[in-house]
Each structure stands twice: as C-alpha cells, then as structure tokens.
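Propose amino acids for all 226 sites.
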C-alpha cells in the first residue's frame, strides 16, 4: 500500500513537470483520454487541457511544484489531495505566483497510475493594485490582440490607465499588479502582457474562469490549434 502511495505521488510530480516543460508526450501518457478537469466553475477535457501544455508563448517560463497532503489507495484507484504551486515568469517583471488545492483521482492502467479526474481550486489572495513608477511604459501594451479563436481584444491607453474591450462588450479598466500584470474586477480575469526580446509587447496571457488563453497583436498571430 505504501509503495502505491509513493508511486502515485511520483506520477503526480511527473505530471507537474510535464505542465512545466511543455512535455506533451508525458501528458498524453499520464492522463486518461476520458479525464475531466474541474477548475473555477468550468470543466475541461483532456484535449482542452493539452492546449496549455503546448502553449506557444516562448517568452513565458513556468515553474510548477506539487506537495502531497493526503493519499488514499483503494485497489486500482487512488485519491490524492495536495497543493500545486505555479510560478509564471516573463523575465521583465516579478514572477506571478499562484497556489491551488488539488483533488486528483488516479486509476491503475497498463501497470501505471493515470489521471482520471481533477478538481482544483485556486487559493485566492487579495489583489492589491500598485502604482506604476513609469506609467509611460503602458503605451507598449496598447493595441489590438487576436485570440486563435478569432475573438479580438482592443487594449487602449487613456489618462495613464489601460482599458480592454471586445467587440460588442463594455470597456473594462485594467488595474495594475505590476508593470506587466493587470486584473479586471468586472469579469474576474488576470492579464499578463509578455515582453518580447526587443522590450515591446506582442502577447497577452489571459487567465479567466479556469482557462489560460493567449492572444497576439495583429501581425503576430499563430494558427488555431482547434
């Protein structure tokens, strides 16, 4: 029983490394095709989750660690509860740290433990708006961004403040957490404007409703992975 617990914990850590290193082969191996993931009120399939593993934004470095808390083994099924720590580093601003409480269900298949279901809850911290030392830098964030789905996001700069709007939607004030990280209270979203090697910005990483999506300035569009 103890060996099975250790095996599952090692599988969980290997899976976390797959998320960190964009290792799609390990992700495919360690996750059942029928796996479902519940995150912040939304359910994702394995196919949808794989899009994050294959994320195209090369300027974003992600570090992920897992700390096991409880493991319960029942024959060929194990329930594992623990904490996932995610650190996102754009290289141009202090890294953004997120912490999640996970409940994972693993099934024994082909002599391996594989993820069958996951429920994760972000451990919320109070967002604290900051005052930017150089608000002139906000101008590089402004522009029109396009998601691979075809949805456009217009980011505008006005009176040293950033605002975002999708066609037909209301304009939303983006509050700064740092020079590159912003949040919108109206629809509970966080945006990271990812600097490129030249110091400009042509990529947005959007976190909303349990999803991580990328959008690109016009002329920097990548093909949809649907």
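Proposal:
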């Amino acid at each position: 029983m103890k060996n099975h617990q250790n095996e599952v914990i090692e599988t969980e850590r290997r899976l976390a490394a797959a998320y960190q290193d964009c290792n799609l082969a390990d992700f495919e191996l360690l996750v059942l095709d029928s796996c479902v993931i519940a995150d912040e009120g939304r359910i994702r399939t394995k196919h949808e989750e794989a899009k994050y593993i294959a994320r195209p934004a090369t300027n974003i470095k992600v570090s992920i660690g897992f700390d096991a808390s409880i493991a319960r083994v029942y024959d060929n099924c194990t329930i594992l509860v623990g904490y996932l720590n995610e650190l996102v580093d754009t290289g141009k601003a202090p890294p953004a740290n997120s912490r999640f409480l996970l409940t994972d269900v693993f099934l024994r298949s082909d002599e391996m433990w594989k993820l069958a279901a996951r429920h994760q809850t972000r451990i919320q911290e109070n967002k604290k708006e900051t005052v930017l030392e150089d608000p002139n830098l906000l101008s590089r964030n402004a522009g029109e961004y396009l998601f691979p789905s075809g949805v456009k996001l217009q980011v505008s700069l006005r009176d040293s403040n950033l605002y975002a709007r999708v066609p037909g939607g209301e304009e939303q004030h983006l509050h700064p957490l740092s020079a590159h990280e912003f949040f919108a209270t109206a629809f509970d979203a966080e945006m990271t404007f990812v600097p490129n090697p030249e110091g400009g910005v042509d990529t947005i990483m959007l976190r909303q409703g349990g999803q991580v999506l990328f959008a690109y300035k016009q002329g920097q569009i990548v093909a949809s992975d649907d």
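The two ends are 41 Å apart (CA to CA). The longest helix spans residues 2-21.
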